[in-house]
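From the pipeline queue, job 12 of 40. The input is one protein chain; the requested action is below.

Action: predict structure.
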Amino acid sequence: MSGEPAPIPPVGLAARVGPGESEDPIEAYLREGAAVRERIERLLPEDWSWAGKRVLDFGCGSARVLRQFLREAEQAEFWGCDIDAPSIAWVQANLSPPLRVFDNAVAPPLPLNEGHFDLIYATSVFTHIGDLWSDWLLELHRILAPGGRLISSFLGEGMWEALIGEAYREEAIGMTVRGHWTEQDAWVFHSEWWLREHWGRLFDVDAVAPPPRTDLGTPQVTHSYIALTKRDVAITKDELERCDASEPRELAALQTNVRLLRQELAAVVDEQARQPPTRSTAVRRVVLASPLAGPARSVWRRMRVFR
């Protein structure tokens, strides 16, 4: 492929990886891919060299970011994986070699050896992983080499007000999930303290990059980033998820989850009430039959540790 322009994916595959609504999905795909590469490189050590490295784009889609490393892929291994089989099929047909890609299931494991990668980056991935976050973090830890690095984007201060419609309060966010029942379309928010507390059990936190500020001092509507280095530890899923009952921010974050979940429940009940009745049923049965019943029970179980 040297000397030739890299193929461009179909509009549908390009639009799938965003960013958001755009009048020109291909232009946005190329622009954002280059911007994400720049963000990743800013979070790497000054003496970092791509030569000889093994790199994984976790959630690569149609190679929005991976294609930015085609030149480096001639002297290093660049891998990508995604749950979207059409995206992976397109990359295999058009950009492989030098890229190496495969499709993966919604839940781990990945078909990869332990300690294979020097760097894994994940953009717009943990922003949509709810219940399986700890499973996937443990899996990425497994396939990273000793001292390997993980760079991930997350929804923080820059996205909270735009998507939730209220002021951002770092101490009351923790890990907050909106639209839990929509699975990969859910919005998952993280605050820095929570990432340091939970992800920091597996990784050393090297840097956290908040969104740039506007001229008015407000955060730009964009992702935040965290850079981590693998720690030589072996912990369980339960240990990774454990909430410290003496940490007031954990309770505040769970209360935020409950409050938002109640809003979503109310919206479901209101929508059901507007529908022509097909049978005689109580509002309680409507709620319990809704997609929010499972998330509601899950949050309630998590709240019980503070009782």
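Job complete. Strands lie at 54-58, 77-82, 100-103, 117-122, 144-154, 175-178, 187-190, 203-209, 224-230.
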